[in-house]
Amino acid sequence: MDSKAQNMRQKVQQILDSNALHSHQINAAQKTFNALSSEQVRAVVTAAEMQAGKSGIALALCCLQRLSLTDAQICDRTQLKDTLYLVTMPDTALKEQAEADLKLAKTLLSVTLLTLLTLLTLLTLLTLLTLKKRLRMSSKATHLN
Predict the structure, then answer these.
(1) H helices of the chain, where?
(2) What are 108-142's pLDDT values in tens digits?
(3) What Rg value do the Cα atoms of the chain yield, rounded?
(4) Which residues have CB under 8 Å from 12's CB, separation 6+?
(5) Angle of the 2-17 helix axis to the 54-67 helix axis, nearest 10
(6) With contact defined as beta carbons under 8 Å apart, do 47 and 28 qualify?
(7) Is the pTM of the predicted complex or chain greater than 0.70?
């Protein structure tokens, strides 16, 4: 297990040390990681203009999370935290760029705001249909009694 864990740590550290990330991205990721490690913070929103380095922060954050795991945990894919990277413009070129920037972060989910809103709308509709069905069944049961 030690050699496998060491190998995983080296791969993650190579990403942090590579030209894929800039020092300001790693610093911002470290601040975000520290905040999320506390009990008071449950979510962090990184907002900045285009080409400011938000994708690099997300990648560095994934690396820091992975490096914080024990040897046993770092070899277990279920120990990865979920990270949602939201692209707020429906521009597919921006989404493709973000996905390319984040290809080293294997557990990152990238969606556009339009996709997210569509998914939330579908979830809401399914919930309403389920409630409607339950109400009908409850109403029928009441009439039978």
Answers:
(1) 2-17, 23-37, 54-67, 71-74, 92-101, 113-144
(2) 555 555 555 566 666 677 777 777 777 777 766 66
(3) 21
(4) 63, 66, 67
(5) 160
(6) no
(7) no
